[in-house]
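We both want to read discrete structure tokens more fluently, so let's practise on a single case. Would you supply a protein for us yourself, any chain you care to pick? Would you write everything just below, so we can both look at the same thing?
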Amino acid sequence: MTGPTADTDASGDGICKMVVRHSEKAGIKKQMSPHRIRHSAITAALDATDGDVRKVEKLSRHRKLYSLMIYDDNRGRDQQDITEILDGMF
């Protein structure tokens, strides 16, 4: 068969299916999506630049700096600590 198929085409659904399939093959347990990967890349770039939002702004392609600042705020260890506490409760 030639041409794109449902799980390999460049549509939003096809890309999402590829991300899920490759994440599972890589042994990633968390539910993955293209947005989650984008979020992780932006957060990693902020970590690598010590929070320099101006350097990461073009990568993120956010129109408003405020949107990028949300990613920077989420880098704090406090949020992860609270998430781990809540995960342990359920």
Notes: The radius of gyration is 16 Å.
